[in-house]
Design a protein that fits this description.
The protein is α/β, with parallel strands linked by helices. The protein has four domains: 88 residues, Orthogonal Bundle (Fumarate Reductase Iron-sulfur Protein, Chain B, domain 2), CATH 1.10.1060.10; 55 residues, no CATH class; 112 residues, no CATH class; 114 residues, Rossmann fold. 51% of the residues lie in helices and 6% in strands. It is built from 25 helices and eight strands. The strands form two sheets. It has a four-stranded parallel β-sheet. Helix 3 packs across helix 6. The chain is globular.
């Protein structure tokens, strides 16, 4: 363990981004260690939740620039929040880590090619036009055969090769938000979801409309800001939060989300803007309206029932299971379909290694977690894998393909809408 991790300190926090009260909730009991994916892989106390909290205590006890070792251990965290589920003291680890990364970004901005690439990526996802163009270019690269050629000849360096492994053609055409007067549910479209997972959005609308719901999707909504806050760009994330609050307006219409990472962050808008007197009240009200789609959808027969018995592995997205404590609802929706058998897997709530852009910034750790998850899935002999987060879907598709298997991986709402079509993928 690095020497910077001393006994639990009582130093006061010098940063507004990390609450002293939040830090005090951790008593360093260690019950979280076995549930931490990076600790299990790296076997270093500094890469465990309690070790990282000790590092964060040291970070915020002074105004000094953090050393490279401290930054490296904080960067290696997936922010999967499995430790929150394991913790008997209710430590808000995700909130603490996001605040710590903002401190690091302020005191030691990331430089070099990696820093520029991260800045460019965050700027892209926060602008629908840019992310749409990036998706079109990626689709052309895949469909032209260039991707197959590049992979066959091993032309890319390791980091770009990690990105290429995750790249696949988008699901049909992009989803275009449409505001509908009198809608009783408001759909959050997101950034990557609206461009690369357009069919998932359309399936979500169809499933809810079959239940008699009316769906509106404000046209001025933007990226949720989750990727920004995970990267320490809290100020930009707060700007995006304000824009979304304004786009969805006030009132009590539920805001439905079908991406687990987006939903967890949208539900945290109240905390994100708690210190902004002009927006705090509206942010809390907005967050209280957010619902994962599995909390809203009712069990119902799909448009085309299954022709045979089907074994389904449901992959728990970390920010749904740990971040939002939603586990039962997706499984209940799947079990409502005649012919579905849910196949349990080992370590079902262990992170798959996606974690936003973690599989691009830390491919070695992400690949090991992906390998473990795929092995657990294939051991269950499923006909199909269902998840509720785009990053998990891309990570699992890539891992299953690399394992030489052909099991389709789809979003929960696509399976609920038309399981037959999903099985044919």
């Amino acid at each position: 363990m690095p020497s910077v991790i001393d006994a639990q300190t009582t130093h006061r926090s010098t940063s507004q981004h990390v609450s002293e009260e939040d830090l005090k909730t951790c008593v360093s009991c260690g019950l979280c260690l076995n549930d931490c994916p990076t600790y299990r892989v790296l076997e270093d106390e500094a890469d465990s939740p309690r070790g990282r909290i000790q590092l964060i205590r040291a970070l915020v006890a002074t105004d000094a620039r953090p050393d490279a070792s401290l930054v490296s251990h904080l960067d290696a965290c997936l922010v999967c929040r499995a430790c929150e589920t394991a913790c008997p003291s209710g430590v808000p680890f995700g909130r603490i880590m996001e605040g710590a990364r903002e401190v690091v970004r302020e005191r030691a901005p990331r430089g070099g090619l990696g820093g520029r690439a991260m800045a460019a990526g965050l700027a892209t996802v926060s602008r629908p036009g840019r992310v749409g163009l990036a998706t079109l270019l990626g689709a052309a690269y895949v469909r032209s055969g260039m991707q197959s050629l590049v992979r066959r000849l091993h032309l890319l360096p390791s980091r770009l090769a990690a990105m290429d492994r995750l790249l696949s053609a988008p699901e049909g055409r992009p989803f275009t938000p449409l505001a509908k007067p009198g809608g009783d549910l408001a759909l959050f479209a997101g950034c990557v979801m609206r461009t690369a997972f357009g069919e998932t959005h359309r399936a979500t609308v169809r499933v809810l409309e079959r239940e008699g719901r009316s769906i509106t999707a404000p046209t001025t909504q933007v990226c949720c800001g989750a990727l920004h806050v995970h990267a320490g760009d809290g100020e930009h994330a707060r700007d995006l939060a304000r824009a979304n609050i304004e786009a969805f307006g006030d009132g009590d219409t539920p805001i439905v989300v079908n991406a687990a990472g987006c939903g967890a962050h949208l539900k945290a808008y109240g905390h994100a803007l708690a210190n902004d007197g002009a927006w705090a009240e509206r942010a809390h009200a907005f967050a209280a309206r957010v619902r994962d789609v599995s909390e809203v959808a009712s069990p119902s027969a799909p448009a085309r029932p299954l022709p045979r018995e089907v074994r389904v592995v449901y992959q728990d997205a970390c920010h749904l299971a740990h971040g939002q404590q939603i586990r039962r609802q997706p499984r209940a929706l799947l079990q409502s379909i005649a012919g579905v058998t849910l196949a349990p897997i080992q370590d079902a709530e262990r992170c798959c290694g996606s974690a936003g852009v973690y599989n691009l910034t830390h491919p070695e750790i992400a690949d090991e977690l992906q390998r473990q998850k795929v092995a657990a899935i294939l051991a269950a002999s499923p006909d199909i894998v269902v998840s509720a987060n785009p990053g998990c879907i891309l990570q699992l598709r890539a891992g299953i393909a690399e394992a030489g298997a052909t099991v389709p991986v789809v979003h929960l709402m696509r399976f609920l809408d038309d399981p037959r079509a999903c099985l044919a993928e």
